[in-house]
Every structure is written in structure tokens, then in C-alpha cells.
Amino acid sequence: MPFVSSSIYKKALQLAISEGLSTELLGENHTLNLTDAYVPMTSLLDVYELAEDHLAPNFGLRQGKQLNSNDYGTLGLSWKTCLEAIDVLRNVKRYMVLVTNDGSISLSENASTITLTLDRDVYRKGVKTTIEVPFVMLLEVIKEVTGKQIIPLEVCFKHSISMVEDFAEYFGCPVHSKSKENSITFDSKSLNITTLKADRFIHDFITQRMEEEKKKLSEKGDELTEEINKILKESMASGIPSLAQIGDYLGISGRTLKRRLSDRNLTFRDLVQKNREETAIQLLSQTSQSIGEIAFLTGFSEQSAFNRAFKKWTGQTPNDYRKTL
């Protein structure tokens, strides 16, 4: 399930309330009294959607402007101590997962320009705001750590923005909506400037910390495959759900789910096969059910198809396997 840093959520909630969003609209589930480091992304999306519906336009612009390095934990510390402004972009690309696991960032660098691209599926209206916020925040952080106002060359959003002139005024450059990608582009030379508190030793130490935190989150990410395995096992007899259907159940798009499995060197087909094989072996070993019944319980419409699949998995037919027990 997508998550986001609770500090980002709390800042959004505080801003929305200060601008007049009623607690009645927010409901009891939204509170500033949080102790967890992360909250479900749906909580942040709720706030963003309510803000866009009931407050002044472009809440994402105002949210991004109030965020700073202190809101980003260890990643924020790395921004403060990095050697050059470009390292802010490099670190957010490498350690974005410390803030959220929703989407991915790529960075394209050449002699003249540097472009950061955010790939995030818009599966809810509030996701558009989650795309706007980080671009604004990055400009604020670069100004914070360098003491200089850096003007991008261009900013692009895939979604439509009703008052794009507000963003153009803030960024000081052309801002395009309905573009092919979500991106912010800088002149390379503009980011090759030393930060105010550049410290290689401290930055290297913080980088080690971020690697440790990233590893812990990766281990926790195994919960995703466990959840998929659980869904597959429970639904196997009634029909294997599609990748998109499982994504809907988990609150993410099929495309995002496919990418997260790919990050673990897995495919949806791998998981389906693994669960069918494990279930078949368990039923053959621990029950007296017929081969036909087991074929049905593992999602096969015909016993012959099950026989072929089982032999491919184990090198034996179901009957031969059962005889060895």
C-alpha cells in the first residue's frame, strides 16, 4: 500500500485547517496527534482533495512553499550538508522511498541541462497535488541550502492546471500543463554551486544512515508480496484475479503494482505460478481430494491443463507425485 511521511501529511493538514477547512469535513480519521513515521497515502490525498474542493485554488503551490529540509528527516539532513545544489536532486532521486513509495524519480544530466522527472499514476484527483508539491518544495530547499534563488528553465505537468499563471509566476519560467511528463529542468551551471553548510564527512555519514533506512523499508516492502500471495490463495478456487484487480484492492494502479514487483525482480505471473504450485503440493500431500478437485482449487478449468502445469513445475504428474508420499 502506498505510504507517505507523516510530517508531510501533518504540514498539509495544518495548512488546510489554518486556511479554514472545517474539522467536520476532515472527519475523525484526520489528526495531528501522530506518532508513526508514515501514514497511508490515501490520508494525504483526502486532505489535498478537500483543500482543492473547499479552499483557494492551487493548494499544492502553498503546501510546497511551506515545506523545508526539516520536514524530510534524514533526507533533509543530507540536503543541508550536500556539497552542491545538484546533490539535492541526486539524493531525492536515490532516496525518494524515505518519503514515499508512490511513484518514481529519474534524473537526466548532460553538459547543458539537468531534468528531474516524476512518474506517478494519477489514480485519484489528489495525486495531481502530490505531483505539484515536490517541484515547489525542491526549489524552496535549493534556496534554503544555497542562499540563492535558482530559476528553472522549464516546468511541465501532465495534468491540467486551472491557474497555471500562478505557478509560472512562482517558478519564474515557462510552466506547461497537459505535457508528456512531469518534469523540472535546470541549467546545469545553475546547480553547480556550493551549499552553505557543505560538509563531506557529515554528508557521507548521513548517506550511510539513509542506506540503512532504505534497507529497512525494502525489507518491510516484502509485506506487499505477502499481501498479494494472501489474495491469490484466497481467490484461487473462484478464479485468479488480474493484476489490475489486485491493484484496485490494494489501492494502487496495476502499472504501479507491476513496477513494484519488478523492483523485487518478480512478475505477477511468477507469483501466480508460485501460489498454484504451493497450493497443489499442499493439497496433494495433506488431503485425499481427487486430482480433478485439486485442479479446480488451484484455478484450472481442466484437469489436463493442471497435469501439464504440475509436471512442468515438479517434473512429475500429480498422480506420480502423490505416490511418492
Gist of the model:
This protein is of the alpha+beta class. It folds into two domains: 3-216, Alpha-Beta Complex (H-NOX domain); 222-323, Arc Repressor Mutant, subunit A, CATH 1.10.10. Helix content is 58%, strand content 9%.
Which term fits the overall shape? elongated
What Rg do the Cα atoms give?
24 Å
> What's the number of extended β-strand segments?
7
Number of H/I helices: 17
CATH architecture verdict of the largest domain: Alpha-Beta Complex
Structural class: alpha+beta
What portion of residues is helical? 55-70%
Task: Say what the CATH topology of the largest domain is.
Answer: H-NOX domain
Number of domains: 2
Cα separation of the termini: 40 Å
Overall residue-averaged pLDDT value: 91
**Biggest β-sheet description:** 5 strands, mixed
Q: How would you portray this structure in words?
A:
The protein has 325 residues and is α+β, with helices and mostly antiparallel strands. It has two domains: 214 residues, H-NOX domain; 102 residues, Arc Repressor Mutant, subunit A (Orthogonal Bundle). It has 17 helices and seven strands. Strands 3-4-7-5-6 form a five-stranded mixed sheet. A two-stranded antiparallel ribbon has the order 1-2. β5, α8 and β6 form a beta-alpha-beta unit. α14 runs antiparallel to α15. The longest helix is centred in the middle third of the chain and has 21 residues. The two termini are 40 Å apart. The mean pLDDT is 91.
